[in-house]
Amino acid sequence: MFILGLFYILSPVDCIPDAFPLIGWLDDIFIAWLMWYYLSHGRLPEFVGRFFANSTAKRGKSDENRSSMRCETDGGEEDDPYAVLGISPGASADEIRKAYKIAVKQYHPDKVAHLGPEFKALAEKKFIRIQQAYELLLREK
Fold first, then answer.
1. What is the pTM of this model?
2. Distance CA 34, CA 129 (A)
3. What Cα–Cα distance (Å) separates residue 71 from each residue in 52, 75, 84, 117?
4. Of 77, 139, 137, which Cα lies nearest the Cα of 107?
5. Contact 129, 106 (CB under 8 A)
6. Max alpha carbon distance in the chain (Å)?
């Protein structure tokens, strides 16, 4: 990301040519700000993610992600904590921890924030169910 941004700023080819004095520098300033934001926060700003999510949705690429997430979160799962974590009822404490970590990585609301608020809300509900199932199973073990 940083190298691409630096290359863009230094290259003679820009979206807005640098031949136009102040106006030509706007795109360079924006790219420099994006690089600074990425380096200081470790991620791009949310509006950039929304922009790319909308552009891929138009091409149909993110529809697959959305439908698979909808099936897994709306799929009529019971309140069985083993079913929520996707493990068998005789699972050991280590298997429960591993399943919990995998599920948290997959359904953490920050991981799907770029898909939009409705998917973030679904992920939050699933994330809460995962935490409740994990706590219940740890109390039993």
1. 0.45
2. 36
3. 23, 5, 13, 17
4. 77
5. no
6. 70
134: which 2 tokens? 């994990």
120-137 pLDDT per residue, tens: 888 899 999 999 999 998
Q: What share of the chain is helix, strand, coil (3-state, %, to 5)?
A: 75, 0, 25
What contacts 58, CB < 8 A, 6 or more positions away? none
Buried/exposed 82-91: b ≥16 CB within 10 Å, e otherwise? bebbebeeeb
Scored b (16 or more CB within 10 A) or e, 41-53 reads eeeeeeeeeeeeb
Instruction: Name the DSSP class of 115.
Output: G
* Class of the CATH domain delimited by 46-141: mainly alpha
Residue matched to tokens 């169910």: 129
Q: How far apart are the first and last CA of the chain?
A: 46
Span 38-82, pLDDT tens digits: 888 777 788 877 766 655 444 444 444 433 333 343 444 457 888
Segment 134-141 mean pLDDT: 86
